[in-house]
Write a structure and sequence with these properties.
The chain is α+β, with helices and mostly antiparallel strands and about 260 residues long. The chain has two domains: about 140 residues, no CATH class; about 100 residues. The strands form four sheets. A four-stranded antiparallel β-sheet has the order 1-8-6-7, covered by helices on one side. The longest helix has 12 residues. The protein starts with a strand and ends in a 20-residue tail after the last strand. The relative contact order is 0.16.
């Protein structure tokens, strides 16, 4: 099941086919990052420079709904348990083309799906912002798993030890981003991570990200629990590629 919504939406009701297990579409309401100078019947997305009309953004993104929905297929077997919200940040050029798309936040925890959303977003062309000036906006997408496997959220010293032991290998992949990266790992009952996700408020080196995800997925972890999928949140420091891994402390984030 998929739920999507524009970063600063109108008060329109949710739309969808209503079928069980089918896609559900909802408009999420969020404040624009800068005040709207002249709000009218249709709200605007205003980010300091350019201005985009919310209705135009919604209509454009609706045209790509099937592409967005199909991204969840890349989760593969992880669809049995991996679900959550992905907050995308669109960086839009003055002509309406997408300069880039970042995974700003994610509780989904699947790199393949997150990268697919970025790929789809980069191909979208919006109406040119007023004044033909660049702007940004945020857009949340939520995927719901089939819940075939129960997920157990964990944290604590054992998780810290597991992740800290990975630092030297992750450092070998290179510099992931200029800022710290939030990560989620799902450890399946066999002890191996079946899904890993990455999110950051900066440009992410996708090759390095792929290397780190594959490194994490290839490591057997002792925090596995029979019959359950264990989920842990942690952060990857921005300086991991240039500093001694033993001097880093990974910050745990308790899942809300």
């Amino acid at each position: 099941m998929l739920v999507v919504g524009v970063g600063c939406g109108s008060s329109k009701g949710a739309k969808g086919d209503g079928a069980e297990g089918g896609p559900e579409l909802a408009v999420a309401k969020r404040r624009p990052r800068a005040p709207v100078a002249d709000p009218g019947a249709s709200m605007n997305l205003d980010n300091e420079i350019g201005v985009l009309d919310t209705d135009d953004v919604e209509a454009t993104l609706q045209e790509h709904f099937d592409d967005v929905r199909s991204c969840y297929g890349r989760a593969g077997k992880a669809q049995r348990y991996a679900g959550g919200r992905v907050l995308l940040r669109f960086l839009v050029n003055g002509d309406g083309s997408a300069q880039d798309v970042w995974v700003l936040e994610s509780t989904l925890g699947n790199y393949d799906v997150e990268r697919c959303l970025v790929e789809v977003g980069r191909k979208i062309r919006f109406h040119a912002p007023s004044g033909s000036k660049a702007t940004t906006f945020e857009y949340p997408v939520e995927f719901r798993s089939t819940k075939q496997l129960e997920v157990l959220d964990v944290d604590g010293p054992k998780v810290d030890h597991e992740i800290a032991a990975l630092l030297p290998q992750l450092a070998a992949c290179g510099q992931l981003a200029s800022e710290g990266v939030n990560a989620i790992v799902y450890v399946e009952p066999n002890g191996f991570p079946g899904s890993v996700g990455l999110a950051t408020a900066a440009a992410l080196d996708e090759d390095v990200g792929d290397c780190m995800v594959q490194t994490i997925r290839g490591r057997h972890m002792s925090m596995a629990v029979p019959g359950l999928v264990v989920r842990a949140n942690f952060s990857i420091p921005s300086g991991i590629a240039t500093a001694d891994a033993s001097h880093h402390t990974l910050s745990r984030h308790h899942r809300r």
